[in-house]
Amino acid sequence: MDPYLPNVRCPTMSKGRYIFLAVLCGAFAFALGIIIGWFSKTEAGPGLTAEDRAALDMYRESIEDADETIRDHILTNIDAERIRENLRELSAKPHMAGTPPDHEMAELLKRRWLENGLDEVRLVPYDVLLSYPPLGREGPNNTVVTVDGADPAREFEDTRSLHIEPEYQDDPDAVQFFNAYSPPGHPVGELVFANYGRLEDFDYLRQAGVNCTGKIVLMKYRSGGRGTKARNAAAAGAIGAILYPEPADTNAPGGKVYPEGWDLPGTGTERGGSLLEPGDPLTPGYPATDYAYHLPEEKITVFPPIPLQPIAYNDAQNYLSHLDGDVAPADWNGTLPITYRLGPGFTGDWAGRKVALHVYTNTTMRRVYNVVGLIKGRLEPDRYVMLGNHYDAWVQGAIDDTSSTAMSLELTRVFGGLVKDDKWRPRRSVVFAAWGAEEFALLGSLEYVEQFTYLIKERMVAYINMDIGVGGNYTIFGGCSPPLVDVIYDTTKQVPDPDASLGKSIYETWAERDPKDADADVKVPKLGWPGVGTDYISFGRRVGTPLFTFAYVHDQTNYSPRSVYPSYHTAYDNMDVMERFVDPDFTVHRAMARISGELVRRLADALVLPYDSRKYAPSLSAFLQATEEDFGSMLHDQDISIDALRSAVANYTVAAEDFQGRVQAIDKKDPMQIRRLNDQMVQVNTAFIDIHQPHHFEKHVLFSPSGCATNSSAAFPGIVRTMCDGPVNEEGWREIKKQVAAITSTIQSAADVISDVDSILGPS
Ligand SMILES: *[C@@H]1O[C@H](CO)[C@@H](O)[C@H](O)[C@H]1NC(C)=O
Ligand SMILES: *[C@@H]1O[C@H](CO)[C@@H](O)[C@H](O)[C@H]1NC(C)=O
Ligand SMILES: *[C@@H]1O[C@H](CO)[C@@H](O)[C@H](O)[C@H]1NC(C)=O
Ligand SMILES: *[C@@H]1O[C@H](CO)[C@@H](O)[C@H](O)[C@H]1NC(C)=O
Ligand SMILES: *[C@@H]1O[C@H](CO)[C@@H](O)[C@H](O)[C@H]1NC(C)=O
Ligand SMILES: *[C@@H]1O[C@H](CO)[C@@H](O)[C@H](O)[C@H]1NC(C)=O
Ligand SMILES: *[C@@H]1O[C@H](CO)[C@@H](O)[C@H](O)[C@H]1NC(C)=O
Ligand SMILES: [Zn+2]
């Protein structure tokens, strides 16, 4: 029985009426009256009209805490074999964004989610600029080839690079190797090797006397964005860029390559977008709807400036092994069985040859869809908890990210089943999202957040994201908004490790395998602000929505820390790899789905949100400390005071402590107070957004990146940003002064949001 019920009824039931009833009906009737009054939920009790009863029921419901038995239902009903069958079906064929199989998948998900019991599912369309090489085996193929330096029309056919994984060349839906948004072009030049293509790599080349002007630059993947590598190469004078996955970074030493193992063979390469920042390049800041204003293409500054093409490492080895020039520094070495040299140009048999790029990749407008489904909340339908992942893939993408799509499909069955059978309906609304065109540039999620910015800001209680959901069987890798840390830890304590023989929770193995502090006596799992680029970005950095993004990853011990997983963005990211090497019994999938499902249930159903606003305070102090240490004396010399910033950080810390005290002392019988404190717990996250920050979606004063390639100071990004390029000029110092004030005001605003109502009067 509801423990609050007696208190509720007291004021409306007069003693006089009880006595009157007792006299009139006698002891038996009195007892019956009591029984009816106490136990009946639907019929009017003594002295209560039907309307009173209904009002009381509504009140009772409004202060009812979550039914915790639903947790067991969700955890036990998530079925590993169903997830396997989902993944088999969804990864059966390539489904690159903007192509017919991609659209079919959106329709399929919509149909299934509805069948599974969601209240409503829609496709949300955007018309965006995508980029493809010739599709369907009809046009020419993107290739790299060596040519006669004196007569570049003369190609050495036997040096022509692969343009697709050979096993997939007969599947017209499997796209050839390309980097989306590369300009088309056919540059010819001598080859130079530039390690990871970072600015310091080009500095090294310059100091080593290697002039990149007019050259084609070969670079390894990792340690920086694809487009950034092309931009750095172009800045050094290069006219074409080639990327390859270095086996030292993707594979374990002595590991077996596919199909004997899951490591990357020398016949596949990573595809991938190369825009310098995500989002539809034609509609920055605004949704790519049919009424959108489109930038003219010549105004777009986010394309890589030179043609860019990925090749497999067998081909990279072929070119590198003939390179002339100095031996590359030891830390540029990979594990190809060659001596890594800098170039320029070739030596031996290949002397005098140049490299020609044939890049046919070009932009094109396409319609892409998000699939968005709703379970309407029972009491607070205007408060949303969203679970999202992208459904597009470069090829089949069994790992990236069809594994997540398979899990969320199973979750729609489990949640939808409860709703369909009238067993349960969450307090708040649950929203499922399958994002389109993530791989190109986070398009679906970014355009969606641009379209619904204020709806999301005002109403979204949490955004949970999965990407590369099951990329390994070792441990969780993720990041979150600080207030969510505890509820995430608690949730992973409820879910057993996928390896049942260990008898441990995910939390325990996560803390052992990836501790926040390896030297701590009691280890806790590593969980900070997310560092990877996926669909949470605009929720987190444009709106400030409380969020968690996560994946299950492989043991990196024998792999380079730069490794994502070996078959990342290749055609070898397929069901076979998943079933034989990553998650044969689908217990990792089941565990991930359980974590997502239980987290969504808790956040959607909890009477009081399990958030802790105090968790921002250590981040604020760390940003402040780094600002003082890295820039304190320079700021002082410029007469820029950070006293007010220090005061805002202190004010936040005190305000959060007070606020958490109010949350702990919450009157669970007062629905208005519950709603008020819950709202504040969400609003404090969005308060760290400064809408006046210049970038169109990087608006978080703590967690937006500074955008610096070289300056890695952990100070507030708005301050670091202006320091990127060395000495700051007068205008720069004015900007920094402005940023210090902006950050101070934003942090103080966050403190005000969690202060009590009289904060509207200003400081006392
Ligand atoms: C491109 O490659 C495909 C195989 O993947 C081949 O069938 C086709 O003929 C090639 N196109 C050209 C123009 O060489
Ligand atoms: C690099 O080569 C270009 C073109 O050959 C030339 O104009 C430029 O001066 C060279 N740069 C250096 C630093 O030698
Ligand atoms: C690594 O680089 C150094 C030169 O910097 C070279 O002497 C050495 O042979 C290289 N190692 C391998 C395995 O290629
Ligand atoms: C690339 O596509 C644009 C239209 O998006 C077109 O104007 C241009 O001619 C194409 N370039 C090549 C080389 O095909
Ligand atoms: C994870 O996968 C590796 C490689 O397939 C395997 O050796 C290992 O036993 C698996 N670990 C667990 C915990 O299942
Ligand atoms: C911090 O709070 C104190 C006391 O209310 C107030 O005087 C001060 O102005 C606040 N700091 C900022 C930056 O607003
Ligand atoms: C970042 O910039 C500051 C100020 O210019 C400078 O003192 C610091 O050394 C830079 N840090 C890095 C890693 O470049
Ligand atoms: Zn992905």
What is shown here, in short?
The protein is of the alpha/beta class and about 775 residues long. The chain is about 40% helix and about 15% strand.
Question: Which helices and strands occur, and which strands form pairs?
Answer:
Blueprint: H1 5-9, H2 15-39, H3 50-62, H4 69-77, H5 80-90, H6 100-115, E1 120-132, E2 143-148, E3 155-156, E4 179-180, E5 188-189, E6 191-193, H7 199-207, E7 216-220, H8 226-235, E8 240-244, H9 247-250, E9 272-273, E10 308-310, H10 313-321, E11 353-358, E12 362-375, E13 380-390, H11 398-420, E14 428-435, H12 438-441, H13 443-451, H14 453-459, E15 460-470, E16 475-480, H15 485-494, H16 506-513, H17 537-543, E17 547-553, H18 575-582, H19 587-605, H20 616-637, H21 643-664, H22 671-686, H23 717-723, H24 730-753
Parallel strand pairs: 4-9, 6-7, 7-8, 8-10, 13-14, 13-15, 15-17
Antiparallel strand pairs: 1-12, 2-3, 2-11, 5-11, 12-14, 16-17
The structure holds 2-acetamido-2-deoxy-beta-D-glucopyranose (NAG) (7 copies) and zinc ion (ZN).
One 2-acetamido-2-deoxy-beta-D-glucopyranose binds next to loops.
Pfam families: PA (PF02225), Peptidase_M28 (PF04389), TFR_dimer (PF04253)
Protein name: Aminopeptidase NAALADL1
Subunit structure: Homodimer.
